[in-house]
Amino acid sequence: MIIQRACTRASRTSGWLSVVAVDGPLEIRCSTVVEEQRRGLDPTGAWRDGCARDLQRQYGARVSPAVSATFVLQWYAGAVASAMAHLAVASRYLLDMSPERLSLGLSAPGGYPTEVGVQPGPVSLEPRLRDREAMLRRAYDLHVGEFAETYAADVKMSSQHRAGSVEDAWQSAWAAATRAALGWPTTDRWRASCCFIYALPGAHECARCPRLRQER
Description:
Elements: H1 2-14, E1 18-21, E2 28-29, H2 30-38, H3 45-59, H4 65-90, E3 93-95, E4 102-106, E5 113-118, E6 123-125, H5 129-150, H6 159-182, H7 210-215
Parallel strand pairs: 1-5
Antiparallel strand pairs: 2-4, 3-6, 4-5
Helix pairs in contact: 1-4, 2-5, 3-4, 4-5, 4-6, 5-6
């Protein structure tokens, strides 16, 4: 009941993402992704291929593998970060957000996450928001940090880009969650990683893209 209530509240503020209490995993099981990458496998290969096909249909041109590789990396990080951040501000209870409890549901077409499933697990009362944030941030860094580090991108991807994507996803998610649920102001920050959207036909860099900062 606590998990269901927390997920419902988180979904109300998370906007693009639904956080749902589930008995079994959704399409992408986070623990499977992490475990297979540890063994040198490529569990997100089909996801990246599907993303590339959808982008090609949408833009009518072949898309660089670097774009779909970065999209999937940052989609994964963003979905996990958003679920954790919105749950932190939605409830005084801290849920078990280990990879074994989490899974992602993807849109079709598009292939971007629309749901994060949270399976039953231990729950503890943590009244202070800063404590919940600190504990969930540690859990996020362990999970998504390892995912990014071992991510089999099939393209050249620097450690700075990987780590920057992890940091950007958390900072964006935390700012969005505290703004939506608590009315906290948001300060602009330069991103540490590029999303590569500028490489799509007719697109350009985001406002806080590190590429623009380098040009100044």
